[in-house]
Amino acid sequence: MGNTPIHNANTLTFAAGVSAALDTKSGTIMSFETPSGGANNATLTFQVSHDGSNYTALDYYDGSAPAAVSVGGLSTSAPEAVSLDAATWRYLASWQYIKLVNSGETSDWVVITRPVD
Question: Which of 105, 111, 113, 86 lies closest to 38 in space, CA to CA?
Answer without folding.
Answer: 105
